[in-house]
Design brief:
By secondary structure, this protein is α+β, with helices and mostly antiparallel strands. The chain has a single domain, classed as Immunoglobulin-like (Sandwich). The strands form three sheets. Strands 3-2-5-6 form a four-stranded antiparallel sheet, with no helix packed on it. The longest helix is centred in the first third of the chain and has 16 residues.
């Protein structure tokens, strides 16, 4: 007969595997971006929505992980800067072939995708247009 602690460990492990997707357990869950600017105190937008001011740490919502979008950094007297925030499919999720709900779990928790880049350091250029 199995030791009760070993049996409990086995049951918990099997439950975890049955209730979670592969990317949720084994994948890279980079979902946070760090944005700094020179000068600091610049407004940061993601897809046109204001998300904060530099320096900024921002967690990309799970629902947006498949297509994070355009990051825009603005400050009065400086040219706005834009950059692309991209994600990639986590290949470990292919192991979800065993059960359909594993795909659903990874999708709902935003773990089918991971951010390709998480650190954005932006040097803003002075606005040289006349009258600004």
């Amino acid at each position: 007969m199995l030791h009760p602690r070993l049996l409990l460990l086995m049951i918990m492990s099997l439950s975890l595997c049955a209730l979670s997707g592969c990317a949720t357990i084994l994948g890279n869950s980079k979902k946070t971006i760090n944005v700094t600017s020179d000068p600091s105190g610049a407004m940061v937008e993601l897809n046109g929505n204001q998300i904060g001011e530099t320096p900024l740490t921002y967690r990309v919502p799970d629902r947006d992980m498949s297509h994070p979008g355009i990051l825009t950094i603005k400050k009065d007297g400086f040219e706005p800067a834009t950059t692309q925030v991209t994600s990639r499919f986590q290949m470990i999720a292919i192991l979800n072939f065993t059960f359909l709900w594993h795909w659903a779990i990874d999708y709902v928790f935003g773990n089918l995708y991971t951010l390709e880049k998480t650190k954005f350091d932006v040097k803003l250029e002075l606005n040289r247009r006349p009258g600004s």
